[in-house]
Design brief:
By secondary structure, the protein is an all-alpha fold. It is built from 8 helices and no strands.
Length: about 230
Amino acid sequence: MPEVSERTHEDHHRELVSRLAREIKPARRLRSVGVRLALWMLLEVGVLAWVVTHTDNDFLPKLKQGPAYAIEIVFFVGAAMISAILALRSAIPGRPLRAAETILGVTLVLAGIVLITVSAPIRTNYQLQEFLHLGLRCARETVVLAATPWLLLWWLVSRGFPTRGRLSGSLIGAGAMFFSFALMRIACPIDEPLHLLTWHLLPAFALIALSTWAGAAWLRFRRRAPRPEPAG
Protein backbone atom coordinates (compact mmCIF):
# COMPACT_ATOMS: atom_id res chain seq x y z
CA MET A 1 0.00 0.00 0.00
CA PRO A 2 2.71 2.59 0.78
CA GLU A 3 4.33 1.92 -2.62
CA VAL A 4 1.00 2.51 -4.42
CA SER A 5 0.52 5.78 -2.52
CA GLU A 6 4.04 6.89 -3.39
CA ARG A 7 3.58 6.03 -7.08
CA THR A 8 0.28 7.91 -7.10
CA HIS A 9 1.94 11.01 -5.67
CA GLU A 10 4.70 10.80 -8.26
CA ASP A 11 2.13 10.38 -11.01
CA HIS A 12 0.29 13.51 -9.84
CA HIS A 13 3.57 15.42 -9.68
CA ARG A 14 4.56 14.27 -13.17
CA GLU A 15 1.15 15.22 -14.53
CA LEU A 16 1.35 18.68 -12.96
CA VAL A 17 4.81 19.28 -14.41
CA SER A 18 3.60 18.17 -17.83
CA ARG A 19 0.61 20.50 -17.64
CA LEU A 20 2.80 23.41 -16.61
CA ALA A 21 5.18 22.71 -19.48
CA ARG A 22 2.28 22.72 -21.95
CA GLU A 23 0.60 25.82 -20.58
CA ILE A 24 3.45 28.19 -19.75
CA LYS A 25 4.47 30.51 -22.53
CA PRO A 26 7.70 32.50 -22.66
CA ALA A 27 7.14 35.80 -20.90
CA ARG A 28 9.02 38.63 -19.33
CA ARG A 29 10.49 37.96 -15.93
CA LEU A 30 7.95 38.44 -13.14
CA ARG A 31 8.82 41.37 -10.94
CA SER A 32 9.36 40.76 -7.26
CA VAL A 33 6.52 40.99 -4.78
CA GLY A 34 8.04 44.19 -3.37
CA VAL A 35 8.10 45.94 -6.76
CA ARG A 36 4.54 44.95 -7.62
CA LEU A 37 3.33 45.92 -4.16
CA ALA A 38 5.01 49.32 -4.50
CA LEU A 39 3.18 49.89 -7.80
CA TRP A 40 -0.15 49.05 -6.17
CA MET A 41 0.60 51.21 -3.14
CA LEU A 42 1.49 54.12 -5.42
CA LEU A 43 -2.00 53.93 -6.86
CA GLU A 44 -3.55 53.74 -3.39
CA VAL A 45 -1.59 56.81 -2.30
CA GLY A 46 -2.97 58.62 -5.32
CA VAL A 47 -6.52 57.61 -4.38
CA LEU A 48 -5.84 58.72 -0.80
CA ALA A 49 -4.62 62.12 -2.02
CA TRP A 50 -7.80 62.50 -4.09
CA VAL A 51 -10.00 61.60 -1.10
CA VAL A 52 -8.20 64.01 1.24
CA THR A 53 -8.53 66.90 -1.19
CA HIS A 54 -12.18 66.25 -2.09
CA THR A 55 -13.83 65.25 1.17
CA ASP A 56 -16.10 67.52 3.19
CA ASN A 57 -15.29 65.53 6.33
CA ASP A 58 -13.13 67.47 8.79
CA PHE A 59 -11.11 64.41 9.75
CA LEU A 60 -7.98 66.12 11.11
CA PRO A 61 -9.61 67.10 14.45
CA LYS A 62 -10.76 63.49 14.81
CA LEU A 63 -7.17 62.34 14.50
CA LYS A 64 -6.17 64.70 17.30
CA GLN A 65 -9.09 63.99 19.64
CA GLY A 66 -8.17 60.42 20.44
CA PRO A 67 -6.18 57.46 19.14
CA ALA A 68 -9.14 55.15 18.40
CA TYR A 69 -10.04 56.80 15.07
CA ALA A 70 -6.45 56.78 13.79
CA ILE A 71 -5.79 53.25 15.06
CA GLU A 72 -8.91 52.00 13.33
CA ILE A 73 -7.74 53.41 10.00
CA VAL A 74 -4.22 52.01 10.52
CA PHE A 75 -5.62 48.56 11.31
CA PHE A 76 -7.61 48.38 8.07
CA VAL A 77 -4.73 49.76 6.00
CA GLY A 78 -2.46 47.15 7.59
CA ALA A 79 -4.94 44.37 6.82
CA ALA A 80 -5.19 45.62 3.23
CA MET A 81 -1.42 45.60 2.76
CA ILE A 82 -1.06 42.13 4.25
CA SER A 83 -3.83 40.87 1.94
CA ALA A 84 -2.16 42.45 -1.09
CA ILE A 85 1.21 40.91 -0.21
CA LEU A 86 -0.34 37.48 0.20
CA ALA A 87 -2.27 37.91 -3.07
CA LEU A 88 0.95 38.68 -4.94
CA ARG A 89 2.70 35.72 -3.33
CA SER A 90 -0.16 33.44 -4.29
CA ALA A 91 0.76 34.04 -7.93
CA ILE A 92 4.14 32.37 -7.44
CA PRO A 93 3.88 28.55 -7.75
CA GLY A 94 5.44 26.76 -4.80
CA ARG A 95 5.57 29.92 -2.68
CA PRO A 96 3.82 29.05 0.61
CA LEU A 97 1.64 31.63 2.34
CA ARG A 98 2.52 32.17 5.97
CA ALA A 99 -0.24 31.41 8.42
CA ALA A 100 1.09 34.02 10.86
CA GLU A 101 0.53 36.81 8.32
CA THR A 102 -2.98 35.61 7.57
CA ILE A 103 -3.79 35.49 11.28
CA LEU A 104 -2.36 38.99 11.73
CA GLY A 105 -4.53 40.36 8.91
CA VAL A 106 -7.67 38.77 10.31
CA THR A 107 -6.81 40.05 13.79
CA LEU A 108 -6.39 43.61 12.51
CA VAL A 109 -9.80 43.50 10.83
CA LEU A 110 -11.51 42.09 13.93
CA ALA A 111 -9.80 44.66 16.16
CA GLY A 112 -10.89 47.42 13.79
CA ILE A 113 -14.49 46.20 13.92
CA VAL A 114 -14.36 46.20 17.72
CA LEU A 115 -13.06 49.79 17.71
CA ILE A 116 -15.90 50.83 15.42
CA THR A 117 -18.48 49.21 17.67
CA VAL A 118 -17.26 50.71 20.94
CA SER A 119 -16.18 54.13 19.68
CA ALA A 120 -19.71 55.61 19.67
CA PRO A 121 -23.21 54.67 20.79
CA ILE A 122 -25.22 52.72 18.21
CA ARG A 123 -28.04 54.85 16.87
CA THR A 124 -31.29 52.96 16.31
CA ASN A 125 -33.72 55.82 15.65
CA TYR A 126 -32.82 56.34 11.99
CA GLN A 127 -35.67 57.09 9.64
CA LEU A 128 -35.58 54.48 6.90
CA GLN A 129 -35.39 57.02 4.08
CA GLU A 130 -32.46 58.82 5.72
CA PHE A 131 -30.68 55.55 6.52
CA LEU A 132 -31.02 54.32 2.93
CA HIS A 133 -30.19 57.66 1.30
CA LEU A 134 -26.95 58.17 3.22
CA GLY A 135 -26.04 54.50 3.25
CA LEU A 136 -26.44 53.72 -0.43
CA ARG A 137 -24.28 56.68 -1.33
CA CYS A 138 -21.52 55.46 0.99
CA ALA A 139 -21.80 51.90 -0.30
CA ARG A 140 -21.43 53.16 -3.86
CA GLU A 141 -18.39 55.27 -2.97
CA THR A 142 -16.80 52.33 -1.15
CA VAL A 143 -17.04 50.27 -4.32
CA VAL A 144 -15.85 53.11 -6.57
CA LEU A 145 -12.76 53.78 -4.44
CA ALA A 146 -11.85 50.09 -4.55
CA ALA A 147 -12.48 49.51 -8.26
CA THR A 148 -9.22 50.71 -9.81
CA PRO A 149 -6.96 49.28 -7.06
CA TRP A 150 -8.82 45.98 -7.40
CA LEU A 151 -8.26 45.92 -11.16
CA LEU A 152 -4.57 46.75 -10.79
CA LEU A 153 -4.01 44.11 -8.10
CA TRP A 154 -5.90 41.56 -10.19
CA TRP A 155 -3.63 42.34 -13.15
CA LEU A 156 -0.49 42.11 -11.04
CA VAL A 157 -1.56 38.72 -9.71
CA SER A 158 -2.67 37.41 -13.11
CA ARG A 159 0.76 38.20 -14.56
CA GLY A 160 2.09 35.46 -12.32
CA PHE A 161 0.80 31.92 -12.22
CA PRO A 162 -1.84 31.62 -9.49
CA THR A 163 -2.78 27.99 -8.93
CA ARG A 164 -5.35 28.67 -6.19
CA GLY A 165 -7.76 31.03 -7.89
CA ARG A 166 -10.30 31.16 -5.10
CA LEU A 167 -7.66 32.14 -2.55
CA SER A 168 -6.03 34.69 -4.86
CA GLY A 169 -9.39 36.27 -5.66
CA SER A 170 -10.27 36.52 -1.98
CA LEU A 171 -6.95 38.16 -1.12
CA ILE A 172 -7.23 40.60 -4.05
CA GLY A 173 -10.68 41.61 -2.87
CA ALA A 174 -9.54 41.99 0.73
CA GLY A 175 -6.60 44.17 -0.27
CA ALA A 176 -8.72 46.54 -2.33
CA MET A 177 -11.81 46.62 -0.10
CA PHE A 178 -10.12 47.04 3.29
CA PHE A 179 -8.07 49.93 1.91
CA SER A 180 -11.28 51.40 0.50
CA PHE A 181 -12.91 51.04 3.91
CA ALA A 182 -10.04 52.99 5.48
CA LEU A 183 -10.38 55.68 2.82
CA MET A 184 -14.10 55.95 3.49
CA ARG A 185 -13.38 56.56 7.18
CA ILE A 186 -11.64 59.71 5.95
CA ALA A 187 -14.20 60.60 3.29
CA CYS A 188 -17.41 59.99 5.27
CA PRO A 189 -18.33 62.36 8.15
CA ILE A 190 -20.59 59.77 9.81
CA ASP A 191 -18.95 57.88 12.69
CA GLU A 192 -22.04 56.04 13.91
CA PRO A 193 -21.34 52.27 14.18
CA LEU A 194 -24.57 51.02 12.57
CA HIS A 195 -23.97 53.14 9.49
CA LEU A 196 -20.33 52.07 9.23
CA LEU A 197 -21.03 48.38 9.70
CA THR A 198 -24.01 48.32 7.33
CA TRP A 199 -22.94 50.63 4.51
CA HIS A 200 -19.14 50.57 4.67
CA LEU A 201 -18.14 47.14 5.96
CA LEU A 202 -20.90 44.90 4.57
CA PRO A 203 -20.35 46.12 0.97
CA ALA A 204 -16.63 45.48 1.48
CA PHE A 205 -17.26 41.88 2.54
CA ALA A 206 -19.78 41.42 -0.29
CA LEU A 207 -17.21 42.53 -2.85
CA ILE A 208 -14.58 40.27 -1.28
CA ALA A 209 -16.99 37.36 -1.74
CA LEU A 210 -17.56 38.40 -5.36
CA SER A 211 -13.80 38.65 -5.91
CA THR A 212 -13.40 35.16 -4.44
CA TRP A 213 -15.92 33.81 -6.94
CA ALA A 214 -14.20 35.66 -9.80
CA GLY A 215 -10.85 34.25 -8.75
CA ALA A 216 -12.24 30.72 -8.70
CA ALA A 217 -13.60 31.26 -12.21
CA TRP A 218 -10.73 33.14 -13.89
CA LEU A 219 -7.59 32.86 -11.77
CA ARG A 220 -7.26 29.11 -11.81
CA PHE A 221 -5.10 26.65 -13.66
CA ARG A 222 -6.92 25.50 -16.78
CA ARG A 223 -6.25 22.44 -18.81
CA ARG A 224 -6.39 23.29 -22.49
CA ALA A 225 -8.13 20.93 -24.81
CA PRO A 226 -5.53 19.12 -26.90
CA ARG A 227 -5.24 20.33 -30.46
CA PRO A 228 -6.48 17.83 -33.01
CA GLU A 229 -3.75 16.02 -34.89
CA PRO A 230 -3.56 17.01 -38.55
CA ALA A 231 -5.06 14.41 -40.82
CA GLY A 232 -2.65 12.39 -42.85
